[in-house]
Amino acid sequence: MERLHRNKISTEKIFILFALLLLAGAMLFGLLGALQYLIPGLLKSRLSFERVRPLHVSSVVFWIIMATMGTAISFLQEHTGKKLYSAQLLGIQLWIFILTIICILTSYCLGIFGGREYWEFPPLLSIPVVIGWILFLINFIKSAGSLKNQPVYVWMWLTGIVFFLFTYIESNLWVLPYFRNNVVNDMTIQWKSYGSMVGSWNMLIYGSSIFLMDKISNNKTYSHSSIAFALYFTGLFNLMFNWGHHIYTLPTQPYVKNISYLVSMTELVILGRIIYNWKHSVSAAKKLFHETAYRFLLAADLWIFLTLLLAIAMSVPAINVYTHGTHITVAHTMGATIGINSFLLLAMAFDILNEGCRSLEPYKKMLNRGILTANISLLIFWLSLIAAGIIKARWQMSGLQLPFSVMMQALRPWFIIFFLSGIALTTGFLLIIYPLVKNQLVCHLKWTIKRRKSSIRTKAALAME
């Protein structure tokens, strides 16, 4: 009976499955956007670049948000050994987000805008997002219980939830004339809120990563260690202050920029150290048992290193003047979003979705090819963006005042590499996503059929009595 019950798709798993569909959609939208760089005006009347870009960006952001909610709720229940405070609240939260996201993506397709970067949808659609997140916060606090002697990942989850709610509301302050009518203040708050928001969902992701590492190694040492709590407090300090490197070009107070320079990306150093030290403590048998999740954690470790190198360079004001507004910024975002966040979230997705009526073993070759393809193509993708960014930076700072069209023509070879590597990257991710989604849907279908047969037999037995 329990085996049958496990085949049912739980609400937490629906969060993750919907997130995986958003990831697949984000990759396809991104690929279309890259193609529009090569063929200007492609699908201009139906799905122009102005629509494709927010479709891609919002799909990526909501992939992260939905996946972090699903993993945090799943792991919290494993940690406490108890059921969630309210399954009903979680179900309401799920449908609020699903319906809102569908409305947001539909509004982009119809050309209905009204927001800002990341959130280019009409501001009214922000209201259900806030309501859904408040339900998430209530459920988490009630389910977690006392915070006394809790491991670091519980603190990271709670901090991430609270600060995301704060920064999301902050990112919508532009709707008030008091903030909107002052250009410098408006841009400062906008970029500050986005920088802190990323730090907020990083808290959720890193907390879940530490829980997963404890689970794989069957060792609670890391989640109670001083280095883990150093990550927590550094990450908290980081999400509060490191956003300053986004506003180097704005006339704001120098001390804000100096503080942000000191703390910029320091939590990545500590997280990388945790993963590096942790992987040496896991036995070969445990690595094999959790092989897929482990490989994603190792891939994230590599991308932490690469993204850190680029982030340190970008946080230097003299370099930031050149990189700001170029494809180098996009490369940094892609490295962090795909190489770190997405690989970590996929590691958690494989851990949570691995249980079911079907094994993922038949898909092992497909998964191995997908992981290898995704990593190699992401590296080429990342390097092509950096190369394009360097060319654009030189054009921006050049005294020759060459036409924009000349610069874009020089970028074309890199855009071709960017597009081709994007195809490979999308293929790699689809090879990874397909087995997870298919297995869950097949198992749920079997559960539904067996439940109906059981119901029919029960009714027949009652009728005979």
Detailed description of the structure:
With 465 residues, this protein is mostly helical. It has a domain at 1-145. The chain has helices at residues 2-6, 11-38, 44-47, 49-80, 87-109, 126-144, 152-171, 177-180, 183-217, 226-241, 254-263, 266-279, 284-289, 291-314, 317-323, 327-353, 364-397, 404-464. It starts with a helix and ends with a helix. Residues 1-5 have low confidence and may be disordered.
Brief account:
This protein has 465 residues and is mostly helical. The chain has 18 helices and no strands.
Give descriptors for this structure.
18 helices, globular, 79% helix, mainly alpha, 465 residues
- Rounded average pLDDT: 85
Alpha plus pi helix count? 18
Helix content: over 70%
Principal-axis shape equals globular
What is the number of beta strands?
0
Beta percentage is under 5%
What structural category do the secondary elements indicate?
Answer: mainly alpha
Order of helices and strands: HHHHHHHHHHHHHHHHHH
Q: Give a short account of the largest sheet.
A: none
Rg, Cα atoms, Å: 23 Å
Could you name the ranges where pLDDT drops below 50 across 5 or more consecutive residues?
A: 1-5
How far from one another are the termini?
25 Å
Strand-helix topology:
Elements: H1 2-6, H2 11-38, H3 44-47, H4 49-80, H5 87-109, H6 126-144, H7 152-171, H8 177-180, H9 183-217, H10 226-241, H11 254-263, H12 266-279, H13 284-289, H14 291-314, H15 317-323, H16 327-353, H17 364-397, H18 404-464
